[in-house]
Specification:
Chain lengths: ~180, ~250
């Protein structure tokens, strides 16, 4: 969350005569981002919404509530409502009154998934999306997907659509295991 | 009864039209869940439906905001009667056999993809944001339906015959996709000019049909009316099923 820290110090510096209040607000925002960032994705619980890049920002609103911005992965992702409720519950448990706002712009892309997130995904048995390969995948060009179990790239696509909107079905021809691939968007 | 009608400004009308396209097509595709010819295709059609439903939700939410009367996406989806729906006639046609479903998805995705790609540069920030996501999703839908159409057309005698019949049957609904949009919205760069999407659509259709060994039907009389709310009979039946719960138990939640 280096990006958050950067804008925090700027906001704190802007407080005119209200430095302690600005500082408290900055601390509240940082706490909210940390706690919200730990909320797990309901479909892939090893990933946090910070790993996924779904958590975008937070701010202390005029009414004192913390407003947390999240962005959907796929337009129809049914997990978004649950993520919003889980964020509010987690912040409420920490004594932070909060509401969640869905922001559409800029549109989420698999390139926002952190490296830590990609590693966790692979360990969980789902091949992570190839970074910076979104456009190639979208146009149906060759994708090299490594099997999350044995690491072989001797793999083949079974179907572009899988058990959730964000996954495709693949099979490893080396170890013969089928696996999910988090597809590029 | 809780039926609502909206005072449609050009922008509200245009957003509703795209929302209704997405919802009606999503509902039709979802009717395949549990019935598709194989498990992978069952998942695929369900996923395409889910993408479209997600796009519909974003668009209805924006339409409600444009209207500014405090209505929700659900009000717009569940409480309007068929004459208030603005979707293309093509998308409300019953699924028919698998070939008809694939042809419907292909013909529409081939225009929806350049539509959203162009709309990414819309002067309307919300539409541009919705477009950025929808464009990538529809790229998958277009490729998937094109691959199936090639397989069906260039497959067995039976699959070829059915794919050609589906094309012949649905072709008369394609003209409506290029009907003029509100001139002011187009001039202000809010929405693409539908006519400008035609060359790419023609090229995509020509390429895929050639590979599928299917004949492009002749452009004869084109049936229109969806954008004005003059629908074919199947839409009413579909809405009766889709809206039943909210009409019978207004405001029901769970």
């Amino acid at each position: 969350m280096t990006r958050a820290t950067g804008s925090l110090s700027r906001e704190a510096g802007e407080g005119r005569g209200g430095a302690p209040a600005a500082l408290a607000a900055a601390r509240l925002r940082a706490d909210a981002l940390r706690i919200a960032g730990e909320v797990a994705d309901p479909e892939i619980p090893v990933l946090s919404i910070a790993d996924l890049g779904v958590l975008r920002d937070a701010r202390v609103a005029e009414d004192g509530q913390v407003e947390v911005d999240i962005t959907p992965t796929y337009s129809g992702c049914p997990a978004m409502n649950m993520i919003a409720v889980n964020i509010e519950t987690a912040l409420d448990a920490a004594g932070i009154p909060a509401r969640v706002k869905l922001v559409l712009s800029p549109a989420w892309t698999t390139d926002w998934m952190t490296q830590a997130g990609r590693d966790k995904l692979r360990d969980y048995g789902i091949a992570p999306p190839a970074p910076k390969a979104s456009r190639r995948a979208l146009f149906g060009m060759d994708e090299e997907v490594a099997c999350p179990r044995c690491g072989s790239t001797e793999t083949e696509k079974l179907s572009e659509f899988g058990s959730t909107a964000c996954k495709a079905l693949w099979r490893c021809t080396a170890c013969k295991e089928p696996f999910d691939y988090f597809k590029c968007l | 009864m809780t039926t609502i009608t909206l005072a449609e400004t050009p922008l509200l009308h245009a957003v509703l039209a795209r929302a209704d396209d997405a919802l009606v097509h999503a509902h039709r595709l979802s009717e395949w869940v549990g019935h598709a010819p194989m498990l992978e295709e069952d998942l695929a059609l369900g996923n395409v439906a889910l993408d479209l439903l997600g796009q519909a939700r974003s668009l209805y939410t924006y339409a409600a905001e444009v209207e500014g009367k405090g209505r929700t996406e659900d009000d717009l989806a569940y409480l309007r009667d068929a004459p208030s729906f603005r979707n293309l006639l093509l998308l409300e046609q019953p699924n028919g056999d698998f070939a008809q479903t694939i042809v419907r998805l292909f013909l529409h995705s081939a225009v929806l993809h350049p539509f959203w790609r162009t709309a990414m540069g819309s002067s309307d920030a919300t539409l541009a944001a919705i477009a950025a996501k929808a464009e990538k999703e529809v790229a998958y839908h277009l490729r998937h339906s094109a691959e199936w159409l090639i397989r069906l057309g260039d497959g067995t005698e039976e699959s070829h015959r059915r794919a050609q019949e589906a094309l012949d049957r649905l072709w008369r609904f394609t003209g409506e996709m290029f009907a003029p949009e509100d001139a002011d919205l187009v001039a202000r760069g809010v929405l693409p000019d539908p006519a400008s999407l035609r060359p790419e659509w023609d090229a995509t259709v020509a390429r895929v049909l050639a590979e599928a060994t299917l004949d492009r039907p002749k452009d004869g009389w084109m049936q229109q009316g969806g954008r004005r709310g003059v629908h074919t009979e199947p839409l009413g039946h579909m809405l009766a099923v889709m809206q039943h719960l909210q009409r019978a138990y207004p405001g029901a939640t769970w």
